[in-house]
Amino acid sequence: MRIKYILLLIFLNVSLFKSLAQDQKMSENEIAVFKQSVAVVSKKIKTLSTDFVQYKHLDFLSKDIETSGKMVFKEPNLLLWQYKKPYSYSIVFKNGKILINDEGKKSAVDIGNSKLFGKINKLIVGSVSGDLFDDKEFSISYFKNKDQNVTKFIPKDATLKKYIKQIELTFDKADATVVQVKLLESSADYTRIVLKNKVINTKVDEASFTN
Amino acid sequence: MKLLLRISSILVLVLSSCSTNNVVKDYNKMPLDKTSMEVPYFSNPATDYVYKANITVYGNELTGIFIAKKINETTHRVVFTTEFGNKLMDFEISENDFKVNFILEELDRKMLINTLVTDFRLLLRSHYTISEQFENAENKVYSALDKNKMNYLFFSKPTNQLSKIVYASKRKEIINLFYSSENNIFAERIIIQHQNIKLKIELNYFNQ
């Protein structure tokens, strides 16, 4: 019996250490170095295209809802977000307009100077490029583990806060690019977007952004 | 006197034709071949029911993902999110009760919530106590009381599949619910069409 307890304690301890080891807070110095390296990389980005897999986690479901597709960005603010599986749905941010193509059914929303959509656009591009370090917009905290750096952003803007409680960006340590975006709605429900096959600064046609 | 009688009989005729709706007009009333019925489309507690949703409301289009799950004997959880995954609304609905876990401020209107709860309740309802039965060449129809309204369940005759549920008052149809189902266990495609307001909800099941 006692051995069982000891084993249990050891196990708990180990897992506690493990979880501590997973996400350690960065020091001030590490934050400065990390921010600098992300800034260097994101500054270089003129175009970016990447595949993504989106996992929608709702705590009451037995498995996450998985959708996937492609994202293309071109400086300064052209953005295509395209779902290919299991349905075809794409959205383009272009010249103050949102163009939607839902299984061939097209529509457009004129967002003009809508501050919120400006913010959302900036948020998506910033999330993927990593350039989101705006202290005015977010309370930011920095963590690290063996292979990755993790930053947590809590929106300060009341409107944005209604949609998103917290954004977590996970960066690959080796090349300082974003590998995962996690949008938290509550403690239990979130959207996790995994980016892969990222290509930076290849030629991207304007035509990619017609919808 | 004769005239009065004629007028009153016409009046009775007019009134009585008003008071029965047209849902099963021209159908023959039949003896009941069952007294209760189960609709299985949202009834399995182990299944996550996930649909792509298109909502057309007064000419405006809204799309997203519709998710439903039976969380206990009486209650379903119903969530509607955008394609990006952020929640627009999150309800818990049972036959006699509902709870709003979350709704986006812009959508937080009592009338909208009540309309959607009525729709979802109709969509998720699995048990019906049959009160009458009708038939014509194409369909078999079972009617069941739904509080102070009626539900009419239409079964196509050759396949014996549930193709439509009509939610109606004594006088007229209020909501039509159309189903396409291959296996009679879940519906691949569902259309909720309102008759009195310009609201249509299309749901297409998606395999992940």
Automatic annotation (TrEMBL), chain A:
UniProt xrefs under Pfam families: LolA
Keyword Transport (UniProt): no
Annotated signal peptide: 1-21
Record's keyword annotation contains Kinase: no
Domain of life: Bacteria
Keywords: Lipoprotein, Signal
PANTHER family according to UniProt: OUTER-MEMBRANE LIPOPROTEIN CARRIER PROTEIN (PTHR35869:SF1)
Name the UniProt record assigns to this protein: Outer membrane lipoprotein carrier protein LolA
Gene source species: Flavobacterium taihuense
Lineage of origin: Bacteria, Pseudomonadati, Bacteroidota, Flavobacteriia, Flavobacteriales
